[in-house]
Amino acid sequence: MTEHIEQRTGPAEKPAGLSVPGIDWERWAPRTLMARASLIIVVPLIVVQIISTYIFYENHWDTMSRRMAASLAGDVAALTNFIRDYPGPENLAWLRDNTKRTLEFDVAYQPGVRLEAAIAPDGVGDDVLSEALWEALKRPFNVDLATFRAEKMIAIDVQLEDGVLNVQAPRRRLFSSTTYVFVIWMVGSSMLLFGVATVFLRNQVKAVRRLSRAVDEFGKGRDVPDFPAEGAFEVRQAARAFNIMRGRIKRQISQRTDMLAGVSHDLRTPLTRMKLQLAMLDREIEPDDVAALKDDAAEMERMLDAYLAFARGEGNEDSMPTDVADLLEGIVGRYRRDGAAITLDHAHANRSIPLRPVAFERCLSNLIGNAVRYGKSVVVTAAIHDNVLDVAVDDDGPGIPADRREDVFRPFTRLEESRNPKTGGVGLGLTIARDIVRSMGGEISLGDSPAGGLRAALRIPL
Fold first, then answer.
1. What is the 3-state secondary structure (H, E, C) of 319-383?
2. CA quadruple 22, 26, 30, 36: dihedral positive or negative?
3. End position of a domain, from candidates 125, 149, 176
4. Tens of pLDDT along 97-128?
């Protein structure tokens, strides 16, 4: 019925705009739409996290660390100054209680002790706390970050003139939880965003997969119901286009099946008459017999021409700029020469538009021919507006009942029940006209004419 859809299993095609010299895209790029869409989301997320982390640590974190270290160093320097200016056990006891209550420091003083390995100016390096302590103290000191880690304390020993001051400060005075909050927030928000995007993309890709399966099933000649238009706008467009294509293909197949049935029926009558006349050739041939054979042969030739025109569908003709007014003048002129009374109004269609001129001429000839056959006067109106071509053919004939108007577009359907081609035609004129109009993206319909007969109206978007 239709050609099978080719299953492409070769390497993925290189997406447009992703050509990078030296990178084998076919090898490294994801093959599925889901994977590629996920990659489009993941890569920017990673880049944003890297940039944010860099800015955070280079600016906010560094500045905050220096300020916290300077604050802690200032408090330690204040303690050393107090002990130097107010020596004595009673002052030390007051200082220990006061700093424990206000600064949460554990303070001790060891008189007569010397630091064995103290940090000097040349050993400060890039340590933020050491730099701040040296700037505030200007004397040797030690910093121990490991010994009291379990108690979440930092040990700072400062060399004084006659002893060593021991200070244990809370680690939160130097290390902020902002780092962990920042990392958790970045990772958590990224995972949440990626999860939401994955669910959304899965629903979008699901519609594409269903459409792919429907196209494959239809390509294998199986009956496929109308595909529901759902998902993203582009997917809905593709679904609607598939439904339209499916309808056109099924309609063409049905029409050509009906054509074969009609051919066998319509050609049987003239063939029977010819066989009868040939069987009677034993007697003397009369001039009327010869004329009858010629009429039958001409009738068969006319039928076959109509069948071939219907089968071809004028589908191989290319569109070209066509002057609608000149085309209408030529068609109407031929019927006028045969004595038909036709009024033509094409004042609003006097310009060239892209059409298939031979097919379009055949379409209009069929419509005007039907109007001339059943009516005494015909009015043809053409207009181009809003990038649409509208043509109406009105007659004053008997018209067609509203419930039969769609039936006449079926192949070999005739309202004249005698099946005589001389009075009712072959039954393909309106079918061919609608096929031609639809092949150009338009539509044709039948309605009531202001003249009292039938109006055949066609509309073609340009």
1. CEEEEHHHHHHHHHHHHHHCCCEEEEEEEECCCEEEECHHHHHHHHHHHHHHHHHHCCEEEEEEE
2. positive
3. 176
4. 998 888 889 999 888 888 876 666 555 545 78
CA dihedral 241, 243, 247, 253 (to 10 degrees): 90
Q: How far apart are CA 370 and CA 395, in angstroms?
A: 9
Residues near 84 by beta carbon (within 8 Å), at least 6 away in sequence = 160, 161
Single-letter amino acid, residue 273: R
Q: Is 407 a member of any domain?
A: yes
* 398 within domain boundaries: yes
Last residue of a domain, one of 116, 143, 176: 176
| Contact indicator for 126, 119 with CB cutoff of 8 Å | no
Number of other CB atoms surrounding residue 353 within 10 Å: 15
At residue 84's C-alpha, the angle toward residues 79 and 89, to 5°, is 85
pLDDT at 156 over 80: yes
Give which of 320, 342, 437 is closest to 394, Cα–Cα: 342
Looking at the structure of the chain, the number of domains it has is 2
In a domain, 255, yes or no: no
Give the contacts of 57 (CB within 8 A, at least 6 positions apart): none
Domain that holds residue 318: 313-461
- What's the burial of 422, exposed, middle or buried (CB within 10 Å: 0-12/13-18/19+)? exposed
Using a CB cutoff of 8 Å and minimum separation of 24, what contacts does 304-308 make? 306/426, 306/428, 307/259, 307/262, 307/263, 307/426, 307/428
Give the highest mean pLDDT range of 65-69, 170-174, 365-369, 425-429. 365-369
Residue with tokens 């910093």: 143
354 phi, psi to nearest 5 deg: -75, 115
- Determine contact, residues 4/220, Cβ cutoff 8 Å: yes
Supply the pTM of this predicted model.
Answer: 0.45
Domain assignment present for residue 192? The answer is: no
For residue 327, the domain's CATH number is: 3.30.565.10
Q: Do 169 and 160 meet the contact criterion of CB atoms below 8 Å apart?
A: no
Q: Does residue 408 contact residue 446 with C-beta atoms inside 8 Å?
A: yes
